[in-house]
Amino acid sequence: MEFSLYKVHGSMNTFYMLDGAERNDYEELTLKLASLDPQTDGLLVVLPSETANAKMRVINRDGSEASMCGNGLRCVARYVCERDGLEEGVIETMKASLHVKKEQTEQDGIAMYAVEISPVSFQLADLPMAYNGESEWLLKPLPFVSEEISYTAVAVPNPHLIGIVPAEYQTDPTHQQKWAEYFNGPNEYFSDGVNVSYVTKVEDGIFVKTFERGVGFTNACGTAMTASALVSCLAGLAPYGDVNVYNPGGMVKCSVAKEGDSFSLRLTGNATYLSTHRFEWQEDDAKSGFLSSEPLQEQALYEKFIERTSSVTEQFVK
Ligand SMILES: N[C@H](CCC[C@H](N)C(=O)O)C(=O)O
From the candidates 75, 81, 221, 233, which is the catalytic residue? Predict the structure, then answer.
């Protein structure tokens, strides 16, 4: 069969987006797309929902399914709002229905969307993470990993391990890569793997680099940046409210509000369309592939936007 795909990105976290009916071969489809396009982080599927404006499913580049994707949700939010003529709406995801809203375009005309990131849980059982029979792991070194780095485990609801690190751990990512690969292979701590982010304070916010489960190092991971903003507020690195979060793919705003014992989190950033594609999908792998591709003009604006953040990111991304 033949269908249309958009190639989209949020903070240069790049996905193919498919609007369609429920299928049972997303894993194979994503693996095929990933083999054709080394740049893509996976597939976003937009589906009808009985309770919300649409439903989103997220397939990582290795074919595994993620419960949430913050950068992808901004792109899906834009697609659904433009398709249905809405300024805001609700998108159903694997574990929660989330509020999404069109925001003012950035000065150059970049489409911006805000998405709710929820639910938040520090219970290790919710990641899952198993360590010494503990029920939470907040702002403490994991002694077998490093005495120098304070780690927090949090599900939003996909699983994140967040370390606060000095700048040299960003310029040389060997430590992060070693442990992220270990925690995403067979290991006794994270039975389903985990997204691993390293966070460093910068003048007007934080810088975050993420090694994603099912993907590897990415330009940005929206849920990770939001979880990192939350951890930075808890650690006193940033005040509650809007946190500027720089990443190798640009910058987003994560707002962190404390309400009693719980937190409300929102992620605001670009939702950019790179190109449109016609794709032929057949069971016979050799017959599947792109039929045509049409570049769109939005990326030039985004590149200008990144230029403005490069003075911060350059010190960490070599
Ligand atoms: N890139 C995504 C998250 C993908 C998460 C995925 N790697 C997993 O939890 O398995 C984001 O922007 O939030």
Answer: 221
Shortest CA distance to 118 belongs to which of 273, 270, 259?
A: 259
Q: 212 alpha carbon to ligand 1 midpoint, in Å?
A: 6
The upper half-sphere exposure of residue 236, i.e. CA atoms within 13 Å in the direction of its Cβ, equals 0
Domain at 2-117+270-310, CATH from 3.40.50.1820, 3.10.310.10, 3.10.490.10, 2.30.40.10: 3.10.310.10
Query: CA 16, 18, 22 angle in degrees (round to 5)?
Result: 135
Furthest CA-CA distance within the chain: 56
Q: What is the per-residue pLDDT across 8-63, written as a single tens digit (0 to 9) for each? A: 999 999 999 999 888 999 999 999 999 999 999 999 999 999 999 999 999 999 99
Query: Which residue shows structure tokens 């990105």?
Result: 9
What pTM does this model have?
0.96
Q: To test the ligand 1 pocket, which listed residue (39, 62, 68, 254) has its Cβ within 8 A of the most ligand atoms?
A: 68
Which residues contact ligand 1 via a Cβ below 6 A? 13, 60, 66, 69-72, 158, 195, 212-215, 221-223
Q: How far is the C-alpha of 33 from the C-alpha of 27, rounded, in Å?
A: 10
Closest CA to 237 of 152, 123, 142, 132: 152
Phi-psi sector, 40: left (phi>0), alpha (psi -120 to 50), beta:
beta
Spatial neighbors of 130 by CB under 8 A, at least 6 apart, are 124, 188, 189, 191
Report the separation in Å between the CA atom of 16 and the middle of ligand 1, taken as the mean of its atom positions.
Answer: 14
Top-tier CATH class for 124-267: alpha beta
Looking at this predicted complex, what is its ipTM? Answer: 0.94
Query: CA 299 to CA 249: how far, in whole Å?
Result: 12
Rounded-to-integer distance, Cα 63 and Cα 224, Å:
20
DSSP per residue, 266-278: EEEEE-EEEEEEE
